[in-house]
Amino acid sequence: MGYLSLVLYAASFVCYARILYAPHVWTGRLATLLLVAGMAGHYLALLARSQGTRWVPYDDLYGSMSLFAWLLALTYLVLETFHRQRSVGVCVTLFLVIWLAALELLVPKPPLEAPPARGALFAFHVTLNTWAYAAFGLSFVLSLVYLVQDRVLRSHRPGAAFWRFPSLDVLDRMSRSSVYVGLAALAVGVASGLIWAHRLTGSYALGDPKVIVTLAIVVVYVIYLRLSRSVHWRGARAARICALNFAIVLFSYTFVNLYLTRFHRFF
Amino acid sequence: MVTPSNAKTPPGGGAQGGARARVHVALIGCNHRTAPVELRERVAFTQEQALHAAGELRRQGILEEAVVLSTCNRSELYGVPVDAGSAVTDAMEDFLTSYHRISRAELEGRTYSWVGPDAVRHLFRVASGLDSMLLGEAEILGQLRTAYGQALESGSTGPVLNRAFQGALEVGKRVRAETEVGARPMSVALAGVKLAERVFGNLKGHAALIVGAGGVAEQVVEHLRNRGIGTLRVVNRSPERAAELASRMGGEAVAWESLERVLSQPDIIVTSVSSVDPVLTREMLERALAARSGRPVFVVDLGVPRNVASEAAGLYNLYLYNIDDLGEIVEQNKRAREAEVPRAEALIAEHLAKFESWRAGIEASSIVDDLRGRFRKEREILLRERLAEMKDVSPEERERLASITEELIERVLDKPEERLLGGRGMRGRLGAIEAVRHLFGLDELDEGDDAGDVNQNRARDKDSQ
Asked: Are A40 and A100 in a shared domain?
């Protein structure tokens, strides 16, 4: 199922790429349809893992990265519908294809074992945090597109695709929308995690490196939102900050989870 | 594609020979390629004249359906002829010359005319902007929609032109949406505005400042106005000129001395001043950007020598394009549009095939009726002749004979009807229709019917054998 959704995402990427040069309305619809089909296949794969472990599939690196990609696709689909803008789809699906290809080829698929029972609140906490990371991932992609468009605009040499991509203003708004979604999900996710930890241990585990880095993520994205409206930073500089912020998300998602935290070591 | 029609033979083929059961679109017109502006002016129609002419073409029995399309670059009469023979374009040209009181000699070699699929293809090419002076321009689609809408309202269209014009509007939209033919700006003014849209998205409500005046600057303003620009300010060295320009452009005049004061407000600045030194320096624009909290500014410098200091291009959130930059983009876009023509032609061919398929369906159903009529008439004649010799046949037997022969006709027609109406390939259907016409002499039958005597037809057939 994992490979099937990868193929569907790749087909969707081809259609999204095609509409940049030959914008046929049905090719655009097919691109979205293939993305939805890829997500459906992806969901079934997640569901299969979830039924095997009897839990939300985030306990191992494979399941967690897969859930991340699915939530990123979902967030993009919402933004595509809301902003009526398909041209960014090429970058998002490319990101998904690379992410899932790396997942299938490099990350070992662990056997399906039921993790220790931690309750629904915990599942809610981890799922929301993964969704927040996915939304930040999307804002990273959108910021890169912004930076490329800005560079093309300054170079005075617009190519065919330039005229099809959204305006800088729309890209900026899409990126900020995505960060807002991420921050909201992270706020609720962290709060539910703190409540769960307090119920279990009587403390909020604020000293855990994962909690500290998560708070740092909140801070850097709030700074981005603030700077994106300031005199000297709005525009390309803010987009650069947004793209760089994702490095901290990746750091938290991989290095912190694997090596630093005791409390949040799932894989 | 456009060929002057000194020879009236329609290039589409299959349109020669006439019969009422045939459904064709006929066209005569002249455009910027075939006629100079002086002549185009003389054969142009106002909206009222276009409607009146369409009505006259129908009233005089030249066309059953008619639409007149008249723009600054073309005057064209489209219609469905009562008789689809080659004479229809002569009749339409006669009408055109008499309506505008010009001699046929003046139009000699200046017009083009087609009957059949090529007339529809031309209409589709016009709608797609492929026949326009500026390849892919969008205005023609609106003009075509207006001309058709008015003709539809006045009742001068019918099923065939409705189908053809609706197809044209659809293909025009598709060509612009699915190819690059209409996607990229083709004028310096539009290129500037489209680039501003790449920064701000929708320009509705944004503020613009015009510094100086000039033809291209006024075109930029027109495009901005069409996009619902908000505040528009005009600055000129001469206060009178500024006031005059502002009133013409629908903006607000600002004194030259106040230029720097208002510089922080617009999102789009267009300069077109005759000046040796830059009118806008880097420092002025830097201060303006700071005053507007770093919100981006798009500057179009149309002046030669340049009105904006070139160092300003490096300012953060300032996008500066001069006339050479825009000119180069327009050239790139022209080449890109030309490269897209084959794809647009493919879309046109697709829609033309749909139209022809629909037309073949209409012709097929009408030809089956013609065939049935022909068989019944032959049966009547044959029965009358043979039964006259057979005196001992009772009325009941005659009735029975009539019923059997009627059944025979229906059985014989069953398969041809099924294949003509349900056949898949459009070309195959049209070919089959032509074959049936030829084999059963239906064109001759129609002419004979017009004369009102089938027997004369038969007699002529016998004479020729």
From this structure: yes
Does the distance separating the beta carbons of A154 and B319 come in below 8 Å?
yes
The Cα–Cα gap between A13 and A62 comes to 22
User: For chain B, which residues score pLDDT lower than 70?
Assistant: 1-22, 84-86, 422-430, 443-465
Are A234 and A158 in the same domain? yes
For residues A67 and A131, membership in a common domain is answered with no
How far apart are alpha carbons B439 and B93 in whole angstroms?
A: 34
Domain end residue (candidates: A62, A87, A116): A116
Nearest-by-CA chain B residue for A232: B294
Q: Rounded CA gap, A26 and A35, in Å?
A: 14
- Angle, CA B9 vertex, CA B8 and CA B11 arms, to 5°: 120
* Residues A82, A169 within the same domain: no
One-letter amino acid at B338 equals E
Q: Which domains does chain B have, with CATH numbers?
A: 26-178 (3.30.460.30), 188-327 (3.40.50.720), 359-464 (no CATH)
**Is A230 within 8 Å of chain B by CB?**
yes
- Whether B30 sits among the annotated catalytic residues: the reply is no
Q: Does A117 touch chain B (CB under 8 A)?
A: no
**Read out DSSP for B239-264?**
HHHHHHHHHHHT-EEEEGGGHHHHTT
- Please report the pLDDT score of residue A122 as a whole number: 83
ipTM attached to this prediction = 0.81
Q: Kindly state the DSSP code that residue B113 receives in the 8-state scheme.
A: E
Prior bond of B305 cis (ω within 30°)? yes
Residues of B in contact with A228 (CB under 8 A): none
**Helical ranges in B101-236 per DSSP H:** 104-107, 117-128, 139-154, 159-178, 188-200, 215-226
**Contact criterion met (CB below 8 Å) for B151 and B49:** no
Under 8 Å between Cβ of A12 and A38: yes
Rg value, chain A, Cα: 19
A20 & A95 share domain: yes
Q: pLDDT by residue (tens digit) across B99-155?
A: 999 999 999 999 999 999 999 999 999 999 999 888 888 889 999 999 999 999 999
* Number of domains composing chain A: 2
Catalytically annotated residue among B72, B138, B346, B408: B72
Indicate if the pLDDT at residue A32 is higher than 90. Answer: yes
Looking at CA atoms only, how far is residue B33 from chain A in angstroms?
30
Q: Which residue has the tokens 């750091």?
A: A251
SS3 of B19-53: CCCCCCCEEEEEECCCCCHHHHHHCCCCHHHHHHH
Do both A124 and A171 map to the same domain? yes
| Same domain for A208 and A142 | yes
Asked if residues A242 and A139 have their Cβ atoms less than 8 Å apart, the reply is yes
- Please report, for residues A122, A202, B175, B192, the alpha-carbon distance to residue B346 in angstroms, rounded to integers and kept in the order given: 58, 72, 10, 31
For residue B30, the one-letter residue type is: C
Residues of A in contact with B319 (CB under 8 A): 153-154
- The pLDDT assigned to A203 comes to 79
Closest approach of A223 to chain B, Cα-based (Å) = 17
- Parent domain of A68: 1-116
How far away is chain B from the Cα of A235, in angstroms, using its nearest Cα? 7
Chain B, nearest residue to A146 by Cα: B199
The residue of chain B with its CA nearest to that of A236 is: B317
Contacts of A18 (CB under 8 A, 6+ apart): A24, A27, A31
Contact A160 B294 (CB under 8 A): no
Alpha helices in chain A (DSSP H): 2-21, 25-53, 61-83, 89-106, 120-155, 168-201, 209-227, 236-251
A149 with B194: Cβ contact below 8 A: no
Q: Are residues A143 and A93 in the same domain?
A: no
